[in-house]
Design goal:
Layout lengths: L2 E6 L1 E2 L2 E2 L1 H14 L5 E8 L4 H9 L4 E6 L8 H15 L3 E5 L2 H13 L4 E5 L1 E7 L2 E10 L4 E5 L7 E5 L15 E5 L29 E5 L7 H11 L2 E4 L1 H5 L20 E5 L5 H4 L7 E6 L12 E4 L2 H18 L1
Helix pairs in contact: 3-4, 5-8
This protein binds flavin-adenine dinucleotide.
Length: 330
């Protein structure tokens, strides 16, 4: 039996989505095999709701490592903790989210245990080759102009960090997980001393959770007030292409694509966006894509469910008016 371990990231004492996404996707990919999916749950205090969630999202086994040091993220402590677990369990694959935490931990950890790491993957596949379970991790390469599938044939665990929001979270209701307590002492000393904690006051938007996204590109760079009005009326979030973010019209947390968020809303409205691969890799899994562009050959139309070949400066105010009318009638 082979094992795929998934680091379960927590922020502010709550499970982050990315670990649950990775559990669900691995379960979907390995459902017809007897390979084991192991959740690595590092926490300052075990929580039964967390354990239940990890189970229903696809874990066969949960390694629960409880230590007061895990209350606040610390690179040195977390690297040592994961190194302890890896050395004790000999996993075939280890997956982490491509978040600030995962990007910090992944390279340190892979160097510690002498293995390879594919960073920032957007697609996972597993291949059974005789006695080996191989991980094939695909990521954009060469400025996003091609996709590279990377393998790590000689070392274990085969490691990858995967972008948040790429996979959906699923509930496998009949799933059962065993819980193992791991309590090896952490022998490293942190170099970080926390003097005080302050919650950031700038509201950071999480586009990965939005069900409706009203996105704009260079073609509608002057239309963001209208896009915001439409988003407000419909309960959606505004997003932007890199061309807009680079002009400081919208902040970086509104960027969709290779260097921004990967989103999969129910509806993604793309106005004045050409459809460069670096943008589309972040939104092409949206359930419905509506594209508005003056250029009939714009690449965005290749992924659009509804294509509107028109001037967005004319279409967007009409759309806004129409929504206002409908809202008044309700
Ligand atoms: C390493 C790397 C990483 C990158 N990462 C990202 C990323 O994460 N996200 C991202 O978005 N980009 C990214 N890019 C940039 C990407 O390659 C494109 O340059 C960018 O997405 C283009 O933005 P755009 O579609 O808004 O602008 P353009 O490509 O200039 O397209 C503007 C579009 O608007 C249309 N248009 C013009 N006027 C109107 C109108 N009145 N009504 C309707 N349509 C109109 C035009 O026909 C055109 O299709 C990256 C590039 C590199 C090299």
């Amino acid at each position: 039996m082979k094992s795929v371990a998934i680091f379960i990231e927590r922020r502010h004492q709550k499970l982050s989505s990315v670990g649950l996404e990775l559990l669900s996707e691995t379960k979907r990919l390995l459902k017809d095999t007897n390979h084991q999916i192991v959740a690595l749950y590092l926490t300052e205090k075990s929580n039964t709701d967390d354990l239940k969630r990890l189970e229903t999202c696809g874990a066969d086994q949960i390694i629960s490592y409880v230590n007061p040091l895990f209350e606040t993220y610390d690179t040195i402590v977390f690297t040592k903790a994961l190194e302890n677990i890896i050395k004790a369990y000999d996993f075939d694959v280890l997956l982490l989210g491509s978040t600030l935490m995962g990007r910090d931990l992944g390279p340190r950890l892979s160097a510690r245990v002498h293995t390879g790491l594919t960073a920032d993957a957007t697609l996972l596949e597993f291949e059974q080759q005789e006695d080996r379970l191989s991980l094939l991790a695909t990521r954009p390469a060469l400025g996003g102009n091609l996709f590279a599938t990377i393998i790590c044939p000689d070392n274990k665990p085969q490691m990858a960090t995967i972008r948040p929001g790429v996979f959906s979270i699923e509930a496998f209701e009949s799933q059962k997980a065993s819980v193992i307590s791991f309590d090896e002492a952490i022998t490293v000393k942190s170099n970080i001393k926390i003097i005080s904690k302050k919650v950031s006051e700038t509201a950071h938007v999480d586009l990965t959770k939005a069900k409706l996204i009203i996105a704009g590109g260079r073609g509608v760079a002057t239309m963001f007030p209208t896009l915001k009005e439409i988003a407000l009326l419909t309960g959606g979030e505004v997003a932007a292409s890199r061309a807009v973010v680079d002009q400081n019209i919208e902040p970086k947390d509104r960027l969709v694509g290779q260097t921004g968020s990967t989103v999969r809303p129910s509806v993604y409205v793309a106005s004045g966006i050409s459809g460069a691969i670096q943008h589309m890799s972040g939104m092409d899994k949206s359930e419905m894509i509506i594209a508005i562009n003056t250029d009939p050959n714009a690449l965005i139309f290749n992924v659009a469910d509804i294509s509107i070949i028109a001037d967005a400066h004319k279409v967007l105010p009409l759309l806004q008016e129409e929504i206002q009318l409908i809202k008044h009638q309700l």
